[in-house]
């Protein structure tokens, strides 16, 4: 089931969109706390965002820009501010489509379906993995945590990706090494230890302590 996040401060419109899209078997949520839209985006990990321009605290352009730092998820702007300048601004900020208010819900559904079909018909996946506030960006091999951005090496990135894809499950060292070999990275047991040590130091320096844990006799785990 595809997930859609509605960022709309008119609750009547937000609920109307939610009810309509739910009828088409989409999992939908709408924002109620407009101070930190990104926190909700990371938690929900939507496949598509419907975004108004005029919002409390920060406008839709701001949140579009913030989302684009993390993800290529499709964004449709929905706004009564539909003059050519705002439409151009929406596209330049990273929007994929624009719907003018007032709008027909059938047109909204058609645009949502078309954009999701184009984006995910070839097995597209999410661009980020989040756990306990730690965001791993799959596009550029970086971590973001409390406004800190951490650059990872290829091996560090793959190790953390494997662990975050299996939160709570201890991954054997040989499984991790095999995955790294498959990505054309030369790695043996000693090299794995060095890479995990470096990864832990980077995480610790950013305030992320005891994130990658050792399971004695098995391997590593993120809990």
List the helices and strands and how they pair.
Elements: E1 3-7, H1 11-23, E2 27-30, H2 37-44, E3 48-51, H3 60-68, E4 75-79, H4 84-92, E5 97-100, H5 105-120, E6 128-131, E7 134-137, E8 142-145, E9 148-151, H6 154-164, E10 171-172, H7 173-182, H8 189-205, E11 213-215, E12 219-221
Helix pairs in contact: 6-8
Organism: Clostridium carboxidivorans P7
DNA-binding region: 126-223
Keywords: DNA-binding, Phosphoprotein, Transcription, Transcription regulation
Helical fraction equals 40-55%
Write down the overall geometry. elongated
Quickly give the structural class: alpha/beta
Number of domains: 2
| Order of adjacent strands in the largest pleated sheet | 2-1-3-4-5
Poorly predicted runs: none
The CATH architecture classification of the largest domain is 3-Layer(aba) Sandwich
What is the chain-wise order of helices and strands? EHEHEHEHEHEEEEHEHHEE
Number of strand segments: 12
Q: CATH H-level name of the largest domain... which superfamily? A: Response regulator
**End-to-end separation:** 26 Å
CATH class of the largest domain: Alpha Beta
GO cellular component, one term: protein-DNA complex
Organism: Clostridium carboxidivorans P7
DNA-binding region: 126-223
Domain Response regulatory: 3-116
